[in-house]
Structure formats: C-alpha cells, structure tokens
Amino acid sequence: MAIVRALRVPLRLRPRFSSLSSIAGSISTLVIGEHEGGAVKAPTLSAVEAAKYLGEGNSVSVLLAGTGSSLQDAAEHAASCHPSISQVIVADSDHFVHHLAEPWARLVQLVQQREGYSHIVTVSNSFGKNVLPRAAALLDVSPITDVVSISGPNQFVRPIYAGNALSTVRYTGNSPCLLSVRSTSFPEPTVAADFRAEKAPISQDSIRKSRYVKLTSQETERPDLGNAKVVVTGGRALKSAENFKMIEKLAEKLGAAVGATRAAVDAGFVPNDLQVGQTGKIVAPELYLAFGVSGAIQHVAGMRDSKVIVAVNKDSDAPIFKVADYGLVGDLFEVIPELLEKLPEK
C-alpha cells in the first residue's frame, strides 16, 4: 500500500554524498512524476516500471508537484496505480504549476538532501530533459540519459550514434544516480487494484530564475504523439503546409497522431512539437505510417521501435525501406487520396 505524505524540506541543508557501490544493498528511488487532469501521466508509470529493474527490495517514491484539487487527485491515483510505489510525495505550490525547470530542479535537490535516495529517475521527454541536467548540477553528479535497459543498480544500456549502436554504461560516481529512461522501452504496466491513502500538501520555497509567459497548444482530438498507438508521418516530399493537410485527414480517419520529419518542420509545414526523430520525439506505436519520408538515420532513431512500419515513397532506393515491414513504391499524392476514399470515416 502506497503512503501519500507531506515532506517539509528545510532550505539550508548540505548534500551528503556517498559512493553508489556502498549503498547497492539498500536501493531507494525517487521518480519525478508528471500529472494532468487529476491522473499520473502514462510515461511516469513507465519510469516506475523501469525502477523495478534497479534491484530487489527497491523502495520507490513518486514526487508530484503543482497545486489545487488536480494535484490531490493525481496523488490519490499515484498511490493506487502501481504496486511498486511505496510512497507519494506531494509539493503543493504555485511555483510548480507551469513545469519551469529551475524550481523543479531545486525541489528535487531539497527532497534528495532530506531523504537520501540512491537513484532518481525521470522520463526522457521534454520535461525530463529540462529538469534532470539542472538537478544533476545542483547535486554535483553526472546523469545517464536515454536508458533503454537496466541490468542492475549501476549498469545501464543506452543508444549511441543515432540509435545505430547500444552502449552498456556502468555508473561509478557518487550517489544519487540520476537516470532518464525512454518510456517506449518500459511499457506501462497493468493497473493494480484501487485503494485510498491520506494525503497532505507541503510548502516549498525556491529561487525563481524564469517566469511563465504562456502555454501554446493546438486544440485537437488526435491522441498525443508520444503515446499514440498509430502514427501517420509526413516528410518534405509533401512540398507544402497545404499538402500536409492530407496527412492530417488520414490521421483523423485512423484515429492516429500526426508526426513529421525535421525537414518538414524546418520547411514550416507543421510546428516542431510534431517532429519525430533524434532531436524530436521518440515514438513506438503499434503502427507507423511514413509518407514521403526518406529515412535519414536521425529520423529512424526516433521510430525504429515501432511494432509495424509502413513506408510509401516513390524512390525505391530510399533508406526508409530498409527498416520498413511493408513498403510501397508510389506517389504519395496518388496513394493518400485513394486511402482517404476507401477508408471509412473513422
């Protein structure tokens, strides 16, 4: 049964470091969590799932921050959504509403100074990539990023050379060991039986070096690109933003998310939050449809874990066909309209 509790952290505590090898027999993990709409996000549960592989007897705590009833509902959800979670720490403050990196990194530092975790884990998404390096700097340790496999408390596997090779890394630095994991490599587990636990907020001061300006997001009924089961991606071959709307129409019929190559984003066809690849989002859907995508290694690095890859390109020598399960050599301006005609509305 998970315990949801408040943690009042003093502002002036000196960090206490120790060698990771000296605490290998006593593993405890802090997962930096994200929540939305009163529930923990699926990638956070993937991070909890990854923490299981750090060793036997691992005590996993989830850190949630924000304010209001949504935070309290998310804490209740976190306490019952995964059997590995033994504790939920709630930081209730306006400082954490907009996911600014500086207050979040400071919060992680203060919680670590108080609790002394052996590992701190987050997801390798835009939020994790923003917070983890700052927290690592405050704790004076080196983070290990983009972990796809865990072989124990200090041995990890991560991709290198745009995903063309895997590197096994052994961490020998001071505690804590900071990790970011790819959620696609640690699938979300089955939800455990519901149960309730008492919660309490905490107060939290932090140094504010950034300020919230605004949130810009597109209003769409399509699933989130990072978690979608079907992704339809378009490349530079679509030639214009107007033509890219064919990809969007096809995605709507399939109930899919829309993705794009860096070339399409740089050409201004779509916003950069739809970019798939090494410098964009990492996806692993059940079905990945690529139209007019050449298959550059930077793009392939972001979608190679897809279960089924279908590619349409008029160039029979396009590199995308080397990773595709099914390939069609044809003109996308003929193929997509035919698909739209023959597919049912939704």
From TrEMBL:
It comes from the Eukaryota. Its main location: mitochondrion. Binds 1 FAD per dimer. FAD binds at residues 236, 261-262, 275-279, 292-299, 313. GO terms for molecular function: electron transfer activity; flavin adenine dinucleotide binding. Residues 29-211 form the Electron transfer flavoprotein alpha/beta-subunit N-terminal domain. Its cofactor is FAD. Gene3D superfamilies: HUPs, TPP-binding domain. It holds the Pfam family ETF_alpha. CDD domains: ETF_alpha. Keywords: Electron transport, FAD, Flavoprotein, Mitochondrion, Transit peptide, Transport. This is Electron transfer flavoprotein subunit alpha. It comes from Linum tenue.
